[in-house]
Specification:
By secondary structure, the protein is of the alpha/beta class. 32% of the residues lie in helices and 16% in strands.
């Protein structure tokens, strides 16, 4: 996307948003793709920040912070301020959005210059849970895993074992529950493969939880959590409310992640060196490498391999295949349908020279298709894991 023109970026984002039910952002992006004022605002921001989703997040952030403008009537996330008044239709929202950009130009510029999109999408844990169970099943003597999340944002995905999971078979509607069943964070995914093909879903033990991010967000900070909320789409209230529930979990967690500031390539070895080397380390990331150049993606792979020279290291990621060519993700066993916006769930173990594509999944975890892995234990074992922990 960095080589596309700004109008092309807006049109492409509109198509992907619409494909995922984001009608408000689809209408906005199509409507402003040729708007001179909006495009000029984008060009005033640093080149690396010129992405439609960053401008959308900056506008949403100001609205959530109380900016008074007719645009708020189009955003479901602003409904508490709108009372019971009906939301206007999508027609005309692009013009209202462009007017907001004109009237709030000076407030948007510093956000565009200093912030980055940091979508801490806990729905992706629908793929991370079985993937981590897969990793744990191959670890000797049931050693606990240490997790290092790159681009961790507020570290919410590192608390995956505090969430409740429901996996529903698409064909017959059968259901499998896992995780902390009483959790307020409920993650549901449709399984497009056979439920019995999933790994056993007993939550693995975790020794350490560490996040590495250029600008880590403190989940106890109101400003930081408002930015997390702003990075979500305004017409998906269930996703918005789930994020708020995950933030509440993080604020009361007895095992909060340790968040480190740094570059995910340059500082990887330094941060990994702070984690007890006595057990297996899982270096994971979700929808982060897409923001790196292809060369930088290759450097990330080499940096992870370098760690594996001194300890058992598993590389686990969920990324958009066409945006992470440098990671070398294996092709999907089944060509994706055009309507699917596929994320590849890939694992490279300490003894494997080649990555394995564990699954294809929706970018936000709505569905998952788990691929058979030779020699991997499978089964419908599931449960709440190690039991409730006091908070």
């Amino acid at each position: 996307m960095p080589d596309w023109t700004l109008p092309e970026q807006f049109r492409a984002f509109a198509e992907s948003a619409e494909r995922d039910g984001g009608d408000t952002y689809a209408a906005i992006c199509r409507g402003v793709a040729g708007d001179a004022v909006v495009l000029a605002l984008m060009r005033e921001s640093p080149p690396a920040q010129r992405r439609p989703n960053l401008l959308l997040a900056a506008v949403h952030f100001l609205l959530l912070g109380g900016a008074d403008h007719p645009l708020s009537a189009y955003y479901d996330t602003m409904s508490p301020r709108q009372g019971d008044s009906p939301r206007p239709g999508g027609h005309g929202v692009a013009a209202v959005f462009a007017d907001f950009c004109r009237s709030h130009h000076d407030a948007l510029l510093p956000l565009m210059a200093t912030r980055s999109t940091q979508t801490n999408e806990v729905g992706r844990c629908a793929g991370l849970l079985p993937a981590l169970c897969h990793v744990a099943a191959g670890v000797e003597e049931d050693q606990p895993l240490s997790l290092l999340d790159l681009g961790a944002s507020a570290g919410l995905n590192l608390l995956f074992d505090d969430y409740a999971y429901t996996y529903r078979q698409r064909t017959d509607g059968s259901v499998l529950h896992a995780g902390r069943l009483e959790s307020d964070v409920a993650i549901a995914a449709t399984v497009r493969s056979d439920l019995s093909g999933l790994p056993g879903l007993n939550v693995p033990a975790v020794a350490e939880r560490v996040g590495l991010d250029l600008s880590p967000l403190d989940p106890t900070s109101e400003d930081a959590t408002r930015w997390l909320e702003a990075c979500l789409w305004p017409d998906n209230l269930p996703r918005f409310n789930r994020l708020r529930a995950a933030v509440a979990v993080a604020r009361t967690a007895t095992h909060p992640p340790r968040l480190e500031r740094g570059d995910l390539v340059e500082d990887l070895a330094r941060v990994a060196g702070t984690i007890d080397p006595g057990g297996p380390l899982v270096v994971l990331h979700t929808w982060v490498a897409a923001y790196l150049t292809v060369e930088r993606q290759r450097e990330l792979v080499q940096a992870v391999r370098a760690l594996a020279r001194s300890r058992p290291v598993h590389h686990l990621y969920a990324e958009s295949p066409h945006e992470v060519i440098g990671l070398g993700a294996p092709p999907s066993p089944e060509p994706a349908r055009r309507s699917d916006y596929v994320t590849a769930l890939v694992h490279t173990g300490p003894d494997g020279a080649y990555p394995v594509r564990l699954a294809d999944m929706h970018p936000h975890g709505k569905w998952i298709r788990w691929w058979p892995t030779p020699g991997a234990p499978t089964g419908r074992r599931a449960g709440p894991g190690p039991g409730p922990r006091p908070r």
